[in-house]
Amino acid sequence: MMKKIALVTGGFTGESVISLKSAAVVEKTIDRSKYDVFKILIYPGNWYHETADGERIPVDLNDFSIQIKGKKIKFDGVFNILHGSPGEDGKLAGYFDMVGLPYTTCDALTSSITMNKGYTKAIVQDIPELFVARSIQLFENIEENKDRILHDLRLPLFVKPNNGGSSIGMSKVKDPKELQEALDKAFAEDSQVLVEEFVSGREFSIGVYHAKGETTVLPATEIVSSKEFFDFEAKYSPGVTEEITPGRMSQEEVERVNRIIEQVYQKLNCKGAVRIDYFLEHDTGKFYFIEINTVPGQTETSLISQQVRAIGMDVKDFYTDLIEEMFT
């Protein structure tokens, strides 16, 4: 008998647009000979499954079930592809834990911590061979912050919402006169903002996942952007960024990166597939941790699928591994 899988998408933030695109790819790729898939859309106060003829079936939040033609459908597990809140920040994970449903992504604690870039850096910074850029975490948008930033950190700077992904609200500041606008932009997205020094280096993004008893670090993708940095447009607009998979690294760099990435995955107690962004500094080759995404995109231009194919694996089989892992 096929397992019933809820494919969860939508969301409460601007990342819902990307989540829907990711869900469309997963929906058409997932192995339908093994799984009966029901896409569940989650919006504030409106959780539903949409049937083929357009009928919206509300989700019973008591047990995360739906009723179709008088028949109650309970799911065996959840394929979570909801970026941002509530799918990536731990809220949904906590709910699924309470109703007893397994899911493909990290648990509630890991999800909530890794959504906060400052907290994540504090946890991983003592991993051997891993470096983090100097930074300041801000909790309010006040005038005194600018003086503190310019005194304690060196330009250029990255200013970014501390919670969230997809580079929404992120700016690169090269002139002090640009700082306030960047802070305003970031605080418009989040109540906490991270300001960190720019690291001059080659940028990479790398996937890692656990399945069948082992942790697999995928080949890294090198990001060569025509933009100032890997922002929202660069991530999701074809042609803006050159993505080289596997990225151009020496054998020593590959081995060192893989050591670090596996330790990051383990130290943060990750589950399922995550994507970690990092720099290799130009002059020194040092590994600088940028951030982790615990619900990485699965759109047509996303990186994880490229990396899976680079190891000779079918993306369909990759999704099967993620689903089966949540039942172990």
From TrEMBL:
<feature type="domain" description="ATP-grasp">
    <location>
        <begin position="117"/>
        <end position="324"/>
    </location>
</feature>
<dbReference type="InterPro" id="IPR011095">
    <property type="entry name" value="Dala_Dala_lig_C"/>
</dbReference>
<keyword id="KW-0961">Cell wall biogenesis/degradation</keyword>
<dbReference type="InterPro" id="IPR005905">
    <property type="entry name" value="D_ala_D_ala"/>
</dbReference>
<keyword id="KW-0067">ATP-binding</keyword>
<dbReference type="InterPro" id="IPR000291">
    <property type="entry name" value="D-Ala_lig_Van_CS"/>
</dbReference>
<comment type="pathway">
    <text>Cell wall biogenesis; peptidoglycan biosynthesis.</text>
</comment>
<dbReference type="Pfam" id="PF01820">
    <property type="entry name" value="Dala_Dala_lig_N"/>
</dbReference>
<dbReference type="GO" id="GO:0008716">
    <property type="term" value="F:D-alanine-D-alanine ligase activity"/>
</dbReference>
<keyword id="KW-0963">Cytoplasm</keyword>
<keyword id="KW-0133">Cell shape</keyword>
<dbReference type="Pfam" id="PF07478">
    <property type="entry name" value="Dala_Dala_lig_C"/>
</dbReference>
<comment type="function">
    <text>Cell wall formation.</text>
</comment>
<comment type="similarity">
    <text>Belongs to the D-alanine--D-alanine ligase family.</text>
</comment>
<dbReference type="InterPro" id="IPR011761">
    <property type="entry name" value="ATP-grasp"/>
</dbReference>
<dbReference type="InterPro" id="IPR016185">
    <property type="entry name" value="PreATP-grasp_dom_sf"/>
</dbReference>
<keyword id="KW-0436">Ligase</keyword>
<keyword id="KW-0547">Nucleotide-binding</keyword>
<dbReference type="InterPro" id="IPR011127">
    <property type="entry name" value="Dala_Dala_lig_N"/>
</dbReference>
<keyword id="KW-0573">Peptidoglycan synthesis</keyword>
<protein>
    <recommendedName>
        <fullName>D-alanine--D-alanine ligase</fullName>
        <ecNumber>6.3.2.4</ecNumber>
    </recommendedName>
</protein>
<dbReference type="InterPro" id="IPR013815">
    <property type="entry name" value="ATP_grasp_subdomain_1"/>
</dbReference>
